[in-house]
């Protein structure tokens, strides 16, 4: 068993991970490593298009406080306001910092960083770099990490987190390229492993690998997960693949039509029509489909009609949308409407962490989409996720440096690594009665059907039963590839098992939260209930395999809950 | 459902003596990536390839289809079937990198190579504020200079297609030069870093590129490494890095064409590679073979006009300073010595004799008009 020794290990090489690495590298001589299951520039931060919210020094009339209010209101008052306050106040600092490092932000004619309006924001405060903001941020952070000689463990897969109940001692990981379980000794760990919307396998905008690996490992290590019932569904995902069609398509004047050609949004948001907030549009689309007014032979999608915009405008403003529609849907939006349906997009919930990204275990931090700080509450605003990853990447790095500087050496036992080795061996020797690809698809369908855009008690209870049944059946999945090197069959199985561990953590609080708040829309409880549910759900995995639910208060400082109206 | 057969490169160094191809029948639907995922989910879970975003931003899934470099998630199956009517589709890993397994190659080496070219911003404190709350001003116009280069997503398609990588182990690769050039034209980057980048680019094979332009055609994101390499070469010469054969060749071309209207085969080996015997040996060989040989071409009618037009072209491309007048004067002197008259007299005489040289000038005018 090979042993590696670091002071800080950052798991995940996306926006949060790389920014954490950068700030750690520049502020300490401690041994820091970034471990990532893909090469850093593949990470899904690179797919973020729209932009990053921040109040800059030249944002006239805007203020961090206004940003905080919009964020809290967008969160349907579930966000912790002390954390939101920290995030919004740090906006300008992180934007200028990454701009100074080379991120090619789009500029105004006077050379200052340009900002545009975004959903749920009262001022135009979304900074952007064309329609590839996340891509440029990721590339720039990677360049800067190379500059700072950051140590990378590329293509390593996190297996387990080791702690003694009080502080973290190390992790175990699988070296994808060479094979083999490794025990990594470290004083501090920053989990920055991204979201888990792949639980909705068949309908998600996420990359193939957004399987909540860090979140699942934390759950298995006994850490609490928070607000897991909140999954953001983006209204316009391509029907076949769930790949995102940008909100800009509606911004430029696209219509949503049902099978009768009706612009149905007039029945849901007569004023704002197609440009109503994301959750409202997503619910409207789902209602049309559920009530039999969907398009296509199975009535399972809605049409996004851009044909009236004309070829010229589509080519100029929405080139990527046209390319993706042709490539992934086989439809040219110049000639026909694009089939779309809501797609699982973002996990508001995640590893329970405080306003500085600290978990209940000392030395263990969480940042970015895998964390639930909570700055997004029940619903995240567009443009706030990139801000979240940078702010918390940086804060957790500084916290980890401070902690690791003084923390004593750790002495992780090899038991966990032996366990993991055994687990992997067992996967290779399983009976193979179940297939990963089939079960994964089934899990995705169950989650979408019972824990999708709309939820209700009876259906969710049914859903949970099915999920637990899939979890049971998952014990029979087999890894057919027995080679050590680049065993993607094994990785696929481990990723699926992570999803299986997380699905009940979404289902359990979803059933118990008997209200509608943000992305959690219940047909049987259509109203928000502040009296009983203005609180975070917390889920823990017990040793007997059951999921234990508890509740935790929301931190409210400046903004008392009010009705969320736009 | 319409199907197609993929012949997929398989190689597991742990188990296989040698690579082999395995055939899979896949639906002609969606992209090549969908087909590979179909294989993995339904036919053979042991197939290894990289994929992540599935929407052409992450650069994971580049590979070869019948020898052509493709991004799997950007390549519709239908298009492949139509292009290669009836022929089997052979799916292989990228070139020039070690195969780890099946379609997965080792990309550490090109990343290490890129790293030597300082592919990051080294801020000039006079331009980029050191105060973290102070914004640095960048005008939209100046970002035009690197608007293509910033699209590079490190998919290594160009690296795989590159002729120079094939020939020269040390050659950094097309994308690496584009990544470096992006900072060469960024006002915020400090001059000392720019100078270093040129130095490292030269030792990394800047002059080895044969300008085959393949990188430009295979890039899925519209980056143009071949052009960036030409521009880096221009910067190298301007910064006085003229001791490499490539730079010398460029100088030979520019100066001789200005002075005489053409390059000089006899002097080229000496001026570029310092081969002093070449001129004599070439003269002898040409004579023996019955090839007409002249030490310098006789100045023709219109030479002065030609020089004006040529200089105009160089100016338009911002390369007028590449012209080395002291070298041109040396060539002029050589011409004067051989033809026993100063260059203007020879040209005047040519005009009197009415020798036609219209071809040369009209060709150049065409070139100018086309710009």
In short:
The complex is a heterodimer of chains A (566) and B (371). Chain A contains 16 helices and 23 strands.
Task: Record the SSE blueprint.
The complex is a heterodimer of chains A (566) and B (371).
Chain A: E1 3-5, E2 8-11, H1 15-27, E3 32-36, E4 52-53, H2 64-74, H3 81-89, H4 91-100, E5 115-116, E6 126-127, H5 133-147, E7 151-154, E8 156-163, E9 168-175, E10 181-185, E11 188-191, H6 213-220, E12 225-226, E13 231-238, H7 248-251, E14 255-257, H8 278-290, E15 302-305, H9 310-317, H10 319-329, E16 338-347, E17 350-352, E18 364-366, E19 371-372, H11 384-406, H12 415-429, H13 436-450, E20 454-455, H14 457-473, H15 488-512, E21 521-522, H16 530-533, E22 535-541, E23 547-553
Parallel strand pairs in A: 1-10, 2-3, 2-11, 3-7, 11-18, 17-19, 20-21
Antiparallel strand pairs in A: 4-6, 5-6, 8-9, 9-10, 12-17, 12-22, 13-16, 14-15, 15-16, 22-23
Chain B: E1 3-10, E2 20-27, H1 32-43, E3 62-65, E4 68-71, H2 77-83, E5 89-92, E6 99-101, E7 104-105, H3 108-115, H4 140-143, H5 157-161, H6 163-167, H7 174-184, H8 191-203, H9 214-218, H10 225-238, H11 245-260, H12 268-273, H13 278-289, H14 303-316, H15 325-339, H16 343-353, H17 358-369
Parallel strand pairs in B: 1-5
Antiparallel strand pairs in B: 1-2, 3-4, 3-5, 6-7
Helix pairs in contact in B: 3-7, 7-10, 8-10, 11-15, 14-17
Question: How many strands in all of chain A?
Answer: 23
Beta-strand percentage of chain A?
15-25%
Mean pLDDT of chain A: 95
How many β-strand runs of chain B? 7
What overall geometry of chain B do the principal axes of the alpha carbons give? globular
Please compute the radius of gyration of chain B using only Cα atoms.
Answer: 27 Å
Give me the CATH fold name of the largest domain in chain A: FAD/NAD(P)-binding domain
Give the strand content of chain B. 5-15%
* Amino-to-carboxy terminus distance of chain A: 58 Å
Quaternary class: heterodimer
**Number of discrete helical segments of chain B:** 17
In CATH, the architecture of the largest domain in chain A is 3-Layer(bba) Sandwich
Number of domains of chain A: 3
Please state the overall shape of chain A, judged from the principal axes of the Cα atoms.
Answer: globular
């Amino acid at each position: 068993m090979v042993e590696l020794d670091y002071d800080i290990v950052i798991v995940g090489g996306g926006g949060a991970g790389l920014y954490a690495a950068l700030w750690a590298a520049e502020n300490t001589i401690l041994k820091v490593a970034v471990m990532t299951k893909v090469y850093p520039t593949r990470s899904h931060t690179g797919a973020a298009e729209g932009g990053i919210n921040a109040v800059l020094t030249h944002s006239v009339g805007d203020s961090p406080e206004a940003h905080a209010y919009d964020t809290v209101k967008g969160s349907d008052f579930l966000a912790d306001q002390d954390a939101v306050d920290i995030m919004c106040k740090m906006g300008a600092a992180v934007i200028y910092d990454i701009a100074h490092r080379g991120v090619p932000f789009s500029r105004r004619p006077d050379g200052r960083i340009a900002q545009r309006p975004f959903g749920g924001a009262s001022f135009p405060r979304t900074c952007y770099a064309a329609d590839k903001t996340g891509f440029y941020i990721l590339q720039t952070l990677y360049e800067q990490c190379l500059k700072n000689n950051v140590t990378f463990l590329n293509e390593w897969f996190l297996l387990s987190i080791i702690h003694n109940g009080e502080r973290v001692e190390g992790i175990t990981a699988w070296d994808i390229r060479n094979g083999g379980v490794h025990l990594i000794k470290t004083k501090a760990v920053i989990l920055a492993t991204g979201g888990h919307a792949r639980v909705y396998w068949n309908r998600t905008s996420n990359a193939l690998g957004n399987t909540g690996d860090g979140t699942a490992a934390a759950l298995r290590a006994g850490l609490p997960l928070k607000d897991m019932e909140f999954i953001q569904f983006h209204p316009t995902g391509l029907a076949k693949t769930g790949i995102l069609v940008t909100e800009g398509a509606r911004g430029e004047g696209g219509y949503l039509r049902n099978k009768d050609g009706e612009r149905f949004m007039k029945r849901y948001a007569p004023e704002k029509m197609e440009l109503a907030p994301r959750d409202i549009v997503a619910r409207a689309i789902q209602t049309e489909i559920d009530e039999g007014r969907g398009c296509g032979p199975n009535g399972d999608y809605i049409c996004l009609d851009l044909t009236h915009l004309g070829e010229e405008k589509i080519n100029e403003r929405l080139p990527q949308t046209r390319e993706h529609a042709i490539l992934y849907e086989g439809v040219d939006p110049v000639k026909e409407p694009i089939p779309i349906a809501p797609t699982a997009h973002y996990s508001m919930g995640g590893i329970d962490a405080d306003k500085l990204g600290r978990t209940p275990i000392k030395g263990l931090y969480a940042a970015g989409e895998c964390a639930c700080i909570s700055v997004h509450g029940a619903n995240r605003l567009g443009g706030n996720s990139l801000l979240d990853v940078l702010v918390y990447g940086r804060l957790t790095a500084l916290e980890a440096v401070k902690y690791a500087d003084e923390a004593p050496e750790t002495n992780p036992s090899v038991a966990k690594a032996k366990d993991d080795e055994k687990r992997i061996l067992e996967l290779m020797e399983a009976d193979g009665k179940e297939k990963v690809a089939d079960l994964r698809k089934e899990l995705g369908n169950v989650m979408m059907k019972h824990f999708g855009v709309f939820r209700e008690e009876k259906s969710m209870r049914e859903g949970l039963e099915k999920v637990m049944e899939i979890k049971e059946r998952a014990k029979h999945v087999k890894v057919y590839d027995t080679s050590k090197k680049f065993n993607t069959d094994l990785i696929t199985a481990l990723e699926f098992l992570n999803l299986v561990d997380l699905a009940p953590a979404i289902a359990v609080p979803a059933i118990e939260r008997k209200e509608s708040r943000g992305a959690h829309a219940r047909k049987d409880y259509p109203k928000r209930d502040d009296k009983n549910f203005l609180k975070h759900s917390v889920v823990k995995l017990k040793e007997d395999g059951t999921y234990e639910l508890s509740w935790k208060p929301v931190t409210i400082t400046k903004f008392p809950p009010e009705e969320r109206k736009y | 459902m319409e199907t197609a057969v993929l012949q997929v490169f398989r190689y597991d160094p742990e188990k296989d003596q040698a690579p082999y191809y395995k055939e899979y029948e896949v639906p002609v639907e969606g992209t090549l990536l969908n087909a590979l995922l179909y294989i993995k989910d339904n036919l053979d879970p042991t197939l290894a390839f990289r994929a992540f975003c599935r929407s052409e931003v992450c650069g994971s899934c580049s590979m070869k289809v019948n020898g052509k470099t493709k991004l799997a998630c950007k390549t519709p199956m239908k298009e492949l079937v139509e292009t290669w009517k009836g022929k089997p589709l052979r799916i292989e890993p990228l070139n020039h990198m070690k195969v780890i397994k099946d379609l997965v190659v080792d990309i550490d080496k090109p990343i290490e190579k890129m790293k030597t070219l300082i592919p990051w911003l080294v801020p000039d404190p006079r331009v980029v504020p050191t105060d973290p709350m102070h914004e640095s001003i960048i005008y939209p116009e100046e970002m035009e200079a690197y608007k293509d280069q910033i699209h590079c997503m490190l998919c290594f398609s160009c690296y795989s297609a590159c002729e120079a990588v094939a020939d020269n182990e040390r050659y950094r690769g097309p994308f690496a030069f584009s990544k470096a050039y992006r900072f060469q034209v960024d006002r915020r980057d400090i001059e000392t870093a720019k100078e270093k980048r040129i130095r490292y680019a030269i030792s990394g094979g800047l002059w080895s590129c044969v300008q085959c332009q393949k990188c430009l055609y295979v890039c899925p994101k519209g980056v143009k490494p071949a052009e960036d390499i030409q521009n880096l070469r221009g910067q190298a010469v301007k910064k006085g890095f003229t001791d490499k054969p490539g730079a010398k060749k460029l100088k030979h071309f520019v100066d001789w064409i200005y002075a005489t209207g053409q390059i000089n085969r006899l002097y080229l080996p000496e001026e570029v590679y310092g081969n002093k015997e070449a001129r004599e040996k070439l003269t002898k060989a040409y004579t023996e073979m019955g090839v007409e040989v002249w030490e310098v071409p006789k100045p023709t009618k219109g030479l002065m006009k030609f020089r004006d037009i040529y200089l105009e072209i160089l100016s338009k491309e911002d390369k007028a300073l590449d012209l080395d007048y002291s070298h041109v004067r040396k060539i002029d002197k050589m011409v004067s010595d051989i033809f026993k008259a100063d260059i203007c007299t020879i040209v005047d005489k040519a005009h009197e004799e009415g020798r036609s040289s219209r071809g040369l000038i009209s060709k150049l005018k065409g070139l100018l008009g086309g710009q």
